[in-house]
Design goal:
With 134 residues, the protein is mainly α. Helix 1 packs antiparallel against helix 2 and helix 3 runs antiparallel to helix 4. The chain is elongated, with a radius of gyration of 16 Å. The mean pLDDT is 97.
Length: 134
């Protein structure tokens, strides 16, 4: 079971990116209920991903990248930016969600302008890292 978690994690990251992007489109179209459903779903999927990711790495440890040359540089550039932003995104998502739940929509919008693109980036680069590792 543990050996299947990397692909599960990649699927969860892909789904999160799709939900975040769809949520963005929905709010641009003023479809608030659909936006809310997408963003809450993205939060749930991202939470499941985080539990799965931590479970996998608690059992397996680190997975080493074996690529060489320029691809090694590309990989570590993506990995470093992804890792830093993955840490930063957690409180951003929680704060943005809190503001929406409490109907503080002006503040929610201000926070979401940063949260959404960073969340999307972290989700997409998670899939890229998976592809480069496996």
């Amino acid at each position: 079971m543990i050996r299947h978690l990397p692909i599960v994690n990649a699927v969860l990251n892909s789904l999160s990116a799709l939900l975040v992007a769809t949520g963005f489109v929905m709010i641009r179209q003023k479809k608030v209920l659909q936006h809310r459903a997408c963003m809450v779903s993205a939060f749930v999927v991202s939470t499941v991903f985080l539990v799965s990711y931590l479970t996998y790495h608690a059992k397996v440890g680190n997975v080493r990248y074996t690529g060489q040359g320029i691809m090694r540089t590309v990989y570590f550039t993506i990995l470093i930016s992804h890792t830093i932003l993955a840490i930063v995104i957690v409180p951003l998502v929680l704060r943005t969600l809190y503001l929406a739940i409490n109907s503080r929509f002006d503040d929610h919008r201000r926070w979401a302008r940063w949260t959404l693109p960073l969340w999307f980036y972290v989700s997409v680069t998670g899939v890229v890292i998976y592809e480069m590792l496996y």
